[in-house]
Amino acid sequence: MPHLDFTQPPFDVLSAAERQSIKKNTQIRYLAKDEYLPADDLQYFYVVLKGQIEQLLDGEFVASYLGSNHTDHLNSNDWFDSRRLPKSLIEGDLPESSEPTNALLSRAEPPSKNPISPYEFRAIEDTLLLQVNGATIDKISAQNHLVRQLLSEDLPERLKALQQRRSSQRLSTASYHGYNEQQEVQQIMMQPVIDVRLLPVHIIDATSSLYDAAHIMTKEGLKHVLVRPLDQLSPIQTQAHTQTLDNDLDSDLNSNLDSDNGRLQTPKTYSGRTLGILTDTDICRAVSDQQNPATTPCQRYASFNLRTIDAHDEIGDALLTMTRYRIHRLPVIDANGEVAGVLGQSDMLAHIGHHSQLISIQIEKAKDLPSLDTAVELIGRYIRAQHQNGVKIGNVSRMVQTLNAQVFTKLWQLIVPDEVMKNTCVIVMGSEGRGEQIMRTDQDNALIIRDGYTHPDLAQFAETFNNHLAALGYPLCDGNIMMTNPMWRQPLKQFEAQIGLWFRNTDPIHSIYLSAILDGEYVCGDESLLTHVREHLKIAHRQSDLMFVRQFARAALQFGDVGQWWQKFVPLLSGKPSSYDIDLKKAGIFPLVHGIRTLALENDIFDAPSSKGRLKALVQARALTQQRADTLLEALEFFMAQRLSVALLTDDKYARHVDPTTLSALERDLLKECLAVVKSFKGQLSRHYQLEFG
Prior knowledge:
By secondary structure, the protein is an alpha+beta fold. A four-stranded antiparallel β-sheet has the order 1-7-2-5.
């Protein structure tokens, strides 16, 4: 008789004793075509061996579960727990504190929920099932966290289980109670920065001499000290410093060393985020400038407005910050706003064994297009390796955004003179701007020019830039949203005037343009130009028609009703002939991205172009619950990961289409639930903005 395949999830993580327990409590069950599971049998866990089961709730289709005869994977059998009510199938609403746009739209009524209504399960054809005792499954789940993760009602937990199985080195069943090397890297990247060995904190006043700073560095074995700025000193200290600058008085007046114990005096209150830093390199620079270390205050050579990171932020975020801004030290700020320590780049890299910095160095050293092309190829290898190692797709995409930005910066530097760099701002938009780009698809970029600045070769520079990017493997944009298009290469005031027009016009193309600029992210040049554009976006939005956001939201509801896609395997906005294919972008990614973008626009969130950043800000604004935001982000990153898998396994340039019958049972289960999340979110948007849906 048929038996359980213990090499397939969720049974591939069982111990020998757990396997034996499952075997003792399993039996074969046959359902004829159109036969329903009786109510008394809705207390079991089922595996579909052959055939197909349709799941209904209050007579409405929910999902379909397939036997191996319906898939391209031998023994890739779907499973279902007849007792479980997945949370993602319960449509969530916006919190009560969140009103529709400009408080004009009345709050929609929450959907009716009847948690005691059981599911119904009907055989679409003659079907063989393995029926496992529910109490046995519960007992095993309680003692085996891997089983519990696979069968969790929480979508994020089940996605973690999938990520673990995307490792290039699968563990055997007997040893699957630990993590392999790649999984350890993933876990380390998600650890808080406070887990890394931090350099000790030594703070010196801006009025102290370079000699004092060098003395502390030598004594403590450091290459830096933190510097307290003038505005945090006492009036007496500030006055002494002013006299030193004006009259070159003896620097002993400014020393902040304690004469009793030789240690630094620390003020009772200060803000860790306003501190500066002085490094051994700065002291060498002062010596080369023929400055007297004994009389020269630290203020002259210290760097302020430091990049910092919070103690609870992830190590992956710290790596992104260091890579993006080319810095080697990050002060770590605790919950009280004080410096808990300094995160050194070498310590962090030693902690995680990560090598993205090597690509960054390769980009920085590039002198021409061929050497830059080598670095770009390394980015592609990095993506493949990280994906195969099971690293979370959000971490991969944000690092790729950082590395791509360095490529774009280096290319622009190779093309334009310094004066153009100082008077323009290069930005990227779309998925690249959101940090959700994992493949080299169409370019989306723009050039903001300082008002009053002109250069006869700007158009030529833009054309060279876009063409060189195309040569590096970043295709030209089919929609012409690139700096070669004069509309995307304008002085600041003209950019702002154009944005105002987009808010006033109901032409759908203008919503596309607005979506692009809302996703805009800085690459290089004068960042203040982008800051001005974002400020104007906020002003133009407030001056727009009160119902503008409602119209803007419509696009999120236009693509892919996923209500019964699984039931009949109908093509879902797919341009390919196969009736099984699903367009991941239109059915999953776009509705989530644009819906999140719309809610951010409604709530005046303009400084966070990424979906992750917008969700975080929406939770802070109480426009979404934390649980809802987490679920939306996990679903979005699942679709992104599926697209990357398609791109790595096929020659599909756009990597949008996936045939669900080619996926594993675990992937199919998660695909169904993520599409259910999309449907739920679209329903939420429909009620919130009072738009028709479904």
